[in-house]
Amino acid sequence: MLNPGECIYQIITDRFCEGNPGNRPPAELFSADSSNPRKYLGGDWEGIIARIGDGYLTGMGISAILISQPAENIHVCMDDEAGTASYHGYWPRDFLRHNPYFGSLDTFRALVNTAHEHGLKVIIDFTPNHTSPALELQPAYMENGALYRAGELVAAYSGDMERVFLHNGGTSFLNAEDSLYRNLYDLAGLDQMNPQADEFLREGIAYWLDQGVDGVRIDAAKHIPPGWLTSFAGFIHTRKPAYLFGEWFLEAHGRSQDNAAFANNSGMSLLHFMFTHAMRESFHGLRGFEAFADMLCESSGCYKHLFDQLIFLDNHDMSRFTQDSDPSLTDLALVLLLTSAGLPVVYYGTEQYMSGGDDPHNRAMMSSFSRETPAYRILAELNRLRARNLAIGYGSTELLHVNSKVLAFERRYRGNVALVLLNLEEREHVLPPLVTSLPQGTYSSILRDVFADCEVSPEAEGDIRNMVMAPRSAYVYTCESDSEEPASLHFYPKAAAPGSELIIQGRYLGDTGSLTVGGYAATVTSWKSDRIVAKVPAIPAGTHHIQGLRNGEKEFLLTEELTVWTGKLVTVRLVVKNILTEYDSQVFVTGNVYELGAWEVDRAAGPFYNHIVYRYPTWYCDISLPADCRIECKFLLRSDSGIVRWEQGVAHSWHTPPEGVSEMIVEWQE
């Protein structure tokens, strides 16, 4: 389990380091001289093990590695000009087998064990959205999107009699329904609401959790029905409190409402694309740091669990942040990344100033393992700061001075303070007087070995005057509290069913105590000064505060609330027939359980769709509901102006299955 005081390093396994040439794939899949970046280039798990062992990764102060999906991928090339292979891991064929071109299963286990021995967690990519490219009318194309279960064929895209896959054409990204229920490009989209697909995906992720991995990145989360994905997250957290986050891509200035609603209510964090776009606009765009300031305001209003969203400069799906014309901006951007609210993810090679445009040029083989670059040293210093100064991981953010090229802000948590100053100008900049929370004294920047130092001496009220910033410079001044008051900092997961494991991290929590969730006693299975492990009690579903009592005398309260589900979740496709609506009306449903809003209109589940799986006037929506539970519900129409019209008659009622997925079809009652 990770917390916001940590940092993740993202590795494309094939592009990081080759440890064993014997793992190389056949010649048609491999580029021996690395001249074809759409082929395998040789990176493997032994190479990652080597870079853990020699201290390269741990020297940066990172606490987790995110690696390519380890499951077996297809063994053929695309028939494009480059002969693209599945080096990236996103074209799986069997979730219960490993990718032999990355190494053996024993080597994967050795990677996990080696990482753990060196204090690193292992996060894997996972793709429940699709298998591999397929063309419905050409079954001989590549591997026909075939899905295997431990070597036995489950289904192929053409001739899919069991409807394991979606067969609704490719998405045009027109709207949410189009993105959820059509294929992503030419990839064979899995129908998660098919019982076979649902069972196999759960079996697949359980297999890798049992190998000891600590977290999961859900690829293409935006294109998977949120109701199913919420149940899937609940399944993972019931099995193991693995850190779980999804890729919900947002265009620059894209709508964040659905994105934030999912992050707030699903128990799954998301990659914070608003942050990424703001960083690019701040450092490479026209608006500068005003874009960053606007993003801070918007995201703090969107996300209930802001510190758990994952912030990053770039990744494998966008051009690299570093530009050959001005790599020094990467140093300054890393300072801002590592001192901002959120859990940072650093893309491999950023510390070596690797550059490149869109795929595949942003996925070149790792260029160097130098530990002397300014970027590497910045990562090492600021990751140490994140680990010790609570203001960075958990503190508030206050902007002190903003213009297009200069940014000054402060992070605060109790007596912990971090003052961060950045100057993108190619000349000196004199800051206006700043009022900070630094105690009176003299401070040097912790980045003085990378950027020119400038000591500051706050006055009694924290005032700093006459600060002259050097050209292209960054300064971080810090103060750590010596208080031993209990600090309950973070809990995980953010949403869980009763009986699930709940982990609380903090400082000075004592060696014994008691814990309550929503006023109900929780069974504690382990209590240490920095970590408490307990079971979510059987309590009414809803959002609840977590409170503790250290050694029977010192109370502590976590600021965020835990969402407790009614019970273990399953996914039900609710279908309602014969609803005739006005053009500005949408269909929702509410009912007797928390997951349906408990009869509250503002919390009703939906909206329903009516174009792809079913067509108007029939509406449908995939919703996570408590398993083995009597459900009562009614549908309602809500207009854009807020007018609500309920259906008539008595509530629909049925009993949910104990596991898996199901469908319930009813008639609208006029």
TrEMBL record:
Its cofactor is Ca(2+). The keyword Signal applies. PROSITE patterns: CBM20. Residues 564-670 form the CBM20 domain. SMART domains: Aamy (SM00642), Aamy_C (SM00632), CBM_2 (SM01065). Gene3D superfamilies: Glycosidases, Golgi alpha-mannosidase II, Immunoglobulins. InterPro entries: A-amylase_C, Alpha_amylase, Carb-bd-like_fold, CBM20, GH, GH13_cat_dom, Glyco_hydro_b, Ig-like_fold. Keywords: Calcium, Metal-binding, Signal. The keyword Lipoprotein does not apply. Pfam families: Alpha-amylase, CBM_20, TIG. Belongs to the glycosyl hydrolase 13 family. This is CBM20 domain-containing protein. It comes from Paenibacillus helianthi. The lineage of its organism: Bacteria, Bacillati, Bacillota, Bacilli, Bacillales.
